[in-house]
Design goal:
Layout lengths: L2 H9 L15 E7 L2 E7 L6 E7 L14 H9 L5 H13 L4 H9 L1
Antiparallel strand pairs: 1-2, 2-3
C-alpha cells in the first residue's frame, strides 16, 4: 500500500480527544509489518499525539454479488459496453415514457 493512501485514510478519522480530523502534514507513517501499519498522527487543534495501528489486507478477488443465474450472467458477459447511442436511445425512450410500468411489463410478456 502506498503511504499517501494510508495518510488519506488516517485523515478521514478524527482525533479521539477533540474530534477534529487529522491533517495530512501531521501524519507520519512509522513502518509496517506484514499487513499491520504503524502511523503517528498529531492533532493540529489540541496537539494530542496518537499512535494508529491499521491492518490493511490485500484485495481479494471475490465473486460478484448478483441475483442473476449463470445463463443470465453469461448473456451479459458477452454483451458489449453501453454506448453513447444506447444512452441517447434510453433518454429518448424515458422522455416519452408515461410511467405506466404495469402496462410496460404486461406488453413484454406477450
Amino acid at each position: 500500500m502506498e503511504e499517501r493512501v494510508l495518510r488519506k485514510l488516517i485523515c478521514s478519522i478524527k482525533c479521539s480527544s477533540c474530534g477534529q480530523p487529522y491533517e495530512a502534514q501531521n501524519v507520519e507513517v512509522l513502518g509496517c509489518s506484514d499487513e499491520m501499519w504503524f502511523v503517528q498522527a498529531l492533532c493540529s487543534s489540541c496537539h494530542t499525539q496518537s499512535l494508529v495501528v491499521a491492518m490493511v489486507r490485500k484485495e481479494r478477488q471475490s465473486a460478484p454479488l448478483t441475483d442473476l443465474n449463470k445463463s443470465e450472467m453469461g448473456k451479459f458477459m458477452v454483451s458489449g459496453a453501453v454506448s453513447s447511442d444506447d444512452l441517447l436511445q434510453m433518454h429518448e425512450y424515458l422522455k416519452a415514457f408515461d410511467g405506466d410500468f404495469t402496462g410496460l411489463f404486461e406488453s413484454q410478456k406477450t
